[in-house]
Amino acid sequence: MKKQEKSRLSAKKLKWVIITLFITGLLIFCYPFVVSFVNNQLDQIRIERFQQKMNQTNGQVRQKRLQALKKRNQALKDLGGVPKQGEDPLTATVAKNDLNRQYFEERLLGSLSIPKIKSQLPLFDRTNPELLEKGVTLLQGTSYPIGGQDTHSVIMGHNGLPNRVLLTKLNQLKKGDRFYIEVLGKQLAYQVKTKRIVKPSNLKGLEVQPGQDLVTLVTCTPYTVNSHRLLVTGYRVPLKQPTPNQAKQTTKNQQWYWLLGSVSIGALVIGGGSLIWRRRR
């Protein structure tokens, strides 16, 4: 009898060990999808709030801000329009600063939309490790992305963060693909013309080119190695509505598909494990 009781107790312990392992496995499996989903939702909320704020802002006020940015772009051009060489922001360490939501809202400049890779991201007005964790950023010393001749904006974003997709799929863009920028309620369209891989210290080709209206997207490559930089440069083209909004809706749908898919797979794993356990009993 004692042996039978010990056997039953051992079986119960084994059962709970298996259940615990399945639940742990499910949580580990779902974690990156859930965190990415939550962060993407927060990104969309941040973008929508900013767009609402811009829509509520007086037109004359927006025009004054745009004129101020144009003057800054002209000043950058007069200085040569070449980004400053310094510490690589894509490899810099995030400081342990307790930055509140207001800081990120104040630095928010607009949004970057890339329909080809189903991505819409907050665009911040400067580059530092903290802002790179939240979206894409404008590299200091390059033009503000408001369009116009003699401008070249360089926008940077991480690749392969565990909790965000960001520009991980930027390598999928090809010549002829389009991406969109919205700043102060003004929408701009750019078409990819070049795609190249360089060393982090190579700034050639990022300077202002006379008469051109350019934007270059920059991220790390290869995936997880990050020894080089992928540069995707686009030139200004006429805007065709409502293309920029497609990325936003597709991104939302894709996030829900990933979340539901991961939960469904997790449920199947638990259900399958329970079924196997019952059959073995």
UniProtKB/TrEMBL annotation:
Keyword terms, alphabetized: Hydrolase, Membrane, Transmembrane, Transmembrane helix
UniProt key word Transmembrane: yes
InterPro entries hit by this protein: Sortase, Sortase_C, Sortase_dom-sf
GO molecular function terms listed in the Swiss-Prot or TrEMBL record: hydrolase activity
Transmembrane residue ranges: 16-38, 256-277
Pfam family, one: Sortase
Keyword Transmembrane: yes
Active site residues according to the UniProt entry: 158 (proton donor/acceptor), 220 (acyl-thioester intermediate)
Coiled coil start-end: none
Protein's UniProt name: Sortase
Organism: Latilactobacillus fuchuensis
Organismal lineage: Bacteria, Bacillati, Bacillota, Bacilli, Lactobacillales
